[in-house]
Amino acid sequence: MNQPLLGCIADDFTGGTDLASMLVRGGMRTLQVIGVPEGPIDADVDAVVIALKSRTLPAAEAVEESLAALAWLKQAGCRQFFFKYCSTFDSTAEGNIGPVADALLNALDSQFALACPAFPENQRTLFNGYLFVGDVLLSESGMRNHPLTPMTDANLVRVLQQQTSRKVGLIPHSVVNQGATATRQAFAQAQAEGCGYTIVDATSNLDLKVIGEAAADHVLITGGSGVALGLPDNFKRAGLLPDASSAAELPHMEGLSAVLSGSCSIATNGQVEQWQQSGRPSFAFDPLRLADGHDQVAEALDWARPLLNQGPVLIYGSAKPEAVKAVQERLGVTAAGEIVERALAQTALGLRDLGVNTFVVAGGETSGAVVKALGVDALRIGETIDPGVPWTLGMGQHPVALALKSGNFGTRDFFSKALELAP
């Protein structure tokens, strides 16, 4: 493996893919690995993204895994590091964004990092430190009802300050709008005033490129995938990144296709409805029946077997908030999610045995479970389907094409569009 320029740590699988997609878009050949590799990887790449499942772990475990990822990336020779979290700043008062960022700064012997989850292409914007989802505050969006990380405060200075002892400041849009030099000076001023972090406003891709340029000499950057938009140009300006016009090329895959959905987000529920309204076949898992021991995986595979040669099928555990709440009250929040994830992961294995080698998967936790079940240890990143969601080649004993979608991402027709663009 050549020495990559940028080493990234993502707190979930689809978040890692989202970030990798942004880097490929900038011309960086990017490999995403699932968990911390046990040794060196033989790949000629410019960036490595280590995807963890740390977003909802206890903070101490999230810190431990993130530090192990950082140690591997440092050993690989990376020049700069990126801690990627969700564009809706998914976290609780206990973390994990603050604790992980603190640990990474300490390990890098650094005192300061920016924090910018903005992703305007997916309608996540920051203004005066407040995060908006579309036209509404984060706290008024569907994220206020998230089953694991409900976001009830849109002021990210307050949110992050609850999670760290370091002082959290703000660089407002009025500064970012003046360009990279002014933003770089604002970073220096914030550090002089004792800030360990600054939330940075961004309402457009231009703002993200300004922030990226201003942070060219930062050892650690934290944020959503959007702020990575400006990083490839930094390496190009430094003469470190060669032309990579073929960075997104993936081999063609022959075989059958399927969609697996475990996310219960508003966006994914709409995508499930669109699939069904278009007359395509779908099979729903019932978490309560699964908990009672019914072998719905076998039922789903028996249902899918005669249909797959006619076209792709959807197998899902997605549900509306009221249904999710009822299941959680019966099974518990964690168990309710895990039982569906396990069923979808087992289904993915069964579908592969039936000849499926192209999967669209909705939901970060679901994607992680499916990828693990399929024995995928790395992803080569390809073309973007929708902002933040690329096609990937899952590398392992049985290569598969994978589109791993964060629950909140994608247009209403995402499932069918992704299959049309499959490699």
Rg over CA atoms: 21 Å
Low-confidence stretches: none
Which class of the largest domain in CATH terms? Alpha Beta
List the strand order in the largest sheet: 9-10-5-11-4-1-3-2-16-17-18-15-12-14-13
Class by SSE composition: alpha/beta
The proportion of strand residues reads 15-25%
Q: Major β-sheet, in short?
A: 15 strands, mixed
CATH architecture of the largest domain: 3-Layer(aba) Sandwich
Helical stretch tally: 15
How helical, in percent, are the residues? 25-40%
Shape: globular
Write up this protein.
The chain is α/β, with parallel strands linked by helices and 423 residues long. The chain has two domains: 6-237, Rossmann fold (3-Layer(aba) Sandwich); 256-420, Molybdenum Cofactor Biosythetic Enzyme, Chain A, CATH 3.40.980. The protein contains 15 helices and 18 strands. The longest helix is centred in the C-terminal third of the chain and has 21 residues, at 333-353. The model has no long low-confidence stretch (mean pLDDT 92).
List keywords for this structure.
globular, Molybdenum Cofactor Biosythetic Enzyme, Chain A, alpha/beta, 37% helix, three-stranded antiparallel sheet, 2 domains, Rossmann fold, 15-stranded mixed sheet, 423 residues, 15 helices
